[in-house]
Amino acid sequence: MNDEARLRTWNIYQAAWGPVDEDERRRLLAQSVTANFAYTDPGSQIEGRDALMTRIGQTQLKFPGASFRNDSFLEHHEQGLFRWTMYDGAGRVFVKGESFGRFGEDGRLIQATGFFEVPAGRG
């Protein structure tokens, strides 16, 4: 799998974090992450696609309409480093961060770790 395919997978994964309905989110995650996907960020540590669905739903409840844009991507040996920007529901920059991801043999993500600081008053 080349880096364009991995970037496409990452972008599908990021789209699942955006303001989409539950059925679309489930479809996007099925395309981009394995069933036993592991996710960590400063506030959570979860395992499994169903737990990720719940985590993303909580994020959308807390920050309605939030979405992500991938700013840069570095990749080697089935791993990727992604720099991204999160926007609030009005389209304003909310937070910038980086995520590390590992891809499985089928090209989907098996693990992602997010690194970011939530702006004061937003946590």
From TrEMBL:
Gene3D superfamilies according to UniProt: 3.10.450.50
Location of the SnoaL-like domain: 29-110
InterPro entries tied to this protein: NTF2-like_dom_sf, SnoaL-like
Protein known as: Polyketide cyclase
Pfam family of the protein (one): SnoaL_2
